[in-house]
Amino acid sequence: MTVKTFGVVGAGQMGNGIAQVAAASGLEVIMNDIKTEFVERGLQAITRNLNRAVEKEKMTAADKDALLNRIKTSVDLKDMASADFVVEAATENQTIKFQIFKDLDEICGAQAILATNTSSIPIGRIASQTQRPDKVIGMHFMNPVPVMKLVEVIRGLATADETFDITWDLSLKFGKTPAEASDFPGFIANRILMPMINEAVYCLYHGVGTRENIDTVMKLGANHPMGPLALADLIGLDTCLAIMETLNDGFKDSKYRPCPLLRKYVEAGWLGRKTGRGFYEYTKS
Ligand SMILES: NC(=O)c1ccc[n+]([C@@H]2O[C@H](COP(=O)([O-])OP(=O)(O)OC[C@H]3O[C@@H](n4cnc5c(N)ncnc54)[C@H](O)[C@@H]3O)[C@@H](O)[C@H]2O)c1
Q: Strands 85-88, 5-9: parallel, antiparallel or unpaired by DSSP?
């Protein structure tokens, strides 16, 4: 199957990044969210990125316009009927994702591949919501999508080889380096990264260090480009908490227990950069 029309469900920080790289590779893109203001915000984020690329002379204004013209916005999931390949990048919530996959299964053509950008929810669990588990796969991009090279590709038990090959080739077409991970909660990236971030939050909670010292120690001591608390703010604390809940639920091991301080921040609406406040404060652009 040749992928020509590429759907993205969820126009948040990951969804709009995925839409941008797909359109940059020449595909026709449909970017969907539940409200017009959310898809417009996603499109504005893409436009800002591309404007910066034009200013830095990495792209011509004509190429920018052509890329933007390849992205159609949608607030009706039925628009995905014309997509050959859909990536779901909605909120990290199992109930939301289950419903989206049930709906996409009814809306999309029989040959369409349904991928999920979930950070942690097992692919087989999502695939079982559909009548086409052979065409469901994990395609896990990293944040920020236009910059980060990795795509984790995850087969569910029933994922067909053809589905895997198409997803792998699409990752390459987007200029990314795919790496395969098995279908366990958190896959590879978040099985390793998120417990570290959670431990950093415990360090803050227990007063082992200030936010600045925790981040400085990991930047200079472990050679990480960002400290774990700044990275948590970039990812979104709601997403971090959801991933820890999935690890905790999946492995039933207390080492994955989300830090109460992380939960407290999420309950307060301090979700990180996207809300202007997390472990650090941000001025909204
Ligand atoms: N943030 C990261 O660093 C990161 C990295 C890799 C993967 N992910 C995963 O990507 C997904 C999205 O994360 P994000 O950081 O972009 O979150 P986000 O909060 O920025 O965006 C989520 C978007 O999904 C939309 N949405 C919710 N329900 C929807 C529905 N039923 N239909 C369509 N849209 C819906 C929301 O309105 C919102 O715009 C999550 O599964 C997350 O785990 C996140």
A: parallel
Q: Would the CB of 91 count as within 6 Å of ligand 1? A: yes
**Atom 7 of ligand 1, nearest CA residue:** 119
- The pLDDT score that the predictor gives to residue 283 is 87
What value, to the nearest 5°, has the Cα angle with vertex 204 and ends 199 and 205?
A: 90
- Sheet of strand 71-74, all strands in order from the earlier edge strand to the far edge: 71-74, 28-32, 5-9, 85-88, 113-116, 136-141, 150-155, 177-181
- pLDDT tens-digit map of 209-242: 999 999 999 999 999 999 999 999 999 999 999 9
Q: Is the CB of 16 under 6 A from ligand 1?
A: no
Q: How far apart are CA 67 and CA 61, in angstroms?
A: 10
What is the distance between the alpha carbons of residues 122 and 181, in angstroms, rounded to a whole number? 11
Cα(12) to ligand 1 centroid in Å equals: 5
Nearest-angstrom CA–CA distance, 281 and 260? 20
User: For ligand 1, atom 10, which residue shows the shortest CA distance?
Assistant: 89
pLDDT above 60 for 285: no
Atom from ligand 1 closest to the CA of residue 243 = 43
Q: Which of 115, 109, 112 is nearest to 14 (CA)?
A: 115
